[in-house]
Amino acid sequence: MNIDGRPWRTIWLEEGGRSVGVIDQTLLPHRFVTRSLTSVEEAAEAIVTMVVRGAPLIGVTGAYGLMLALQADPSDASLAAAFARLDATRPTAINLRWALERVRAAVLPLAPEQRAEAARAEAAAIAEEDVAMCEAIGDHGLRLFQEIAARRPEQRRGQPLNVLTHCNAGWLATVDWGTALAPIYKAHRSGLPIHVWVDETRPRNQGASLTAFELGREGVPHTVIVDNAGGHLMQHGQVDAVIVGTDRTTRTGDVCNKIGTYLKALAAHDNGVPFYVALPASTIDWSIGDGVKEIPIEARSPLEVTRIAGKPAAGEPTSVQLVPDGSDGFNPAFDVTPARLVTALITERGVAPASEAGLQALYAAPAAAG
Q1: Whether 357 and 273 share a structural domain
Q2: pTM of the full predicted structure?
Q3: pLDDT above 80: residue 368
Q4: How confident is the model at residue 312 (pLDDT cuts 50, 70, 90)?
């Protein structure tokens, strides 16, 4: 991620290798502040409070959280307690459990004095793999964008490709590059004219605050829109493609993403607009076949609905109440888009139909997948 000309990742080992640095995403876009995580509890709180967020980044943070726990106490009991604490932080994204299980498997057979270093190495490997997978997703998605641009009518050749995205699936949701935004960055850097419609993404406004922040720093032309404007733009031919991320993908191609994604998919389907979902392998849950029935949907605090954060014309960012006194809120954080509404899945291994056969053509499904 380029911030004022300096490349950043969203998470890194700090000097000495015993603490972890992260960008505090709750303060963006108005303040760019980094934080140090020095204990498993601090890592867990960073995930719960969304200092770090996005399925791949949550997974890497969890992996480093186990490292922090084992530095303090490398016993079996400590490992089990840390695993349980981190695993309980956010239930929907599968990447967290995947990363925790991977680190646990790497350290459990070792002598206690070897565990912290092994956890550090495994967490770092997961982080590097995430960067490589996201960049590969960007390359595969770029080819799709180039094909769409080439198919447009002659009078539209050379005009910017209009892409709509929902929530934040960019650098800030991963270690670097992002998932849904990686093809956009690749397109921009390759010289393909591109413009992004950025859904605000209520209630936490990750689009308006985080995606717009990223795109602005990278110099990508973009426009922030209210969540319900996407269908209108599609009806009037102002969207060439929709691309989103996913926090959990079933083996049959259902995708679970930020609340409101399902409605975008319906609008895209009704208007003949391709609807793409970008994901790394770590987001596939091979044990689940029906996303609507089986994926646990996190319900966050109703205060995220009844209040809104912002920055006054003069002064520090603050939070204000939106609703009348006594009005309650309900805040499901995700919804599920059935595979039938997904044009294709963009993975690090290539582009696949949103189906069990499509995914199995790219990946060897685990034996336990049933």
Answers
A1: yes
A2: 0.94
A3: no
A4: confident
The answer to whether 9 is a known ligand-binding residue is no
The 10s digit of each residue's pLDDT in 221-280 is 999 999 999 999 999 999 999 999 999 999 999 999 999 999 999 999 999 999 999 999
Which residue is catalytic, options 227, 247, 254, 335?
Answer: 247
Both 273 and 352 in one domain: the answer is yes
Distance separating alpha carbons of residues 168 and 365, to the nearest angstrom? 28
Q: CA-CA distance, 353 to 209, in Å (whole number)? A: 32
95 token code pair: 């990447």
Query: Is 102 assigned to a binding site?
Result: no
| 167/79 same-domain check | no
d(CA 258, CA 262): 9
Structure tokens at 291: 């996303």
Same domain, 113 and 174: no
Q: Please tell me whether 53 is known to bind a ligand.
A: yes
> Is 199 among the residues known to form the active site?
no
- Please tell me whether 90 is known to bind a ligand: yes
Query: With contact defined as beta carbons under 8 Å apart, do 92 and 256 qualify?
Result: yes
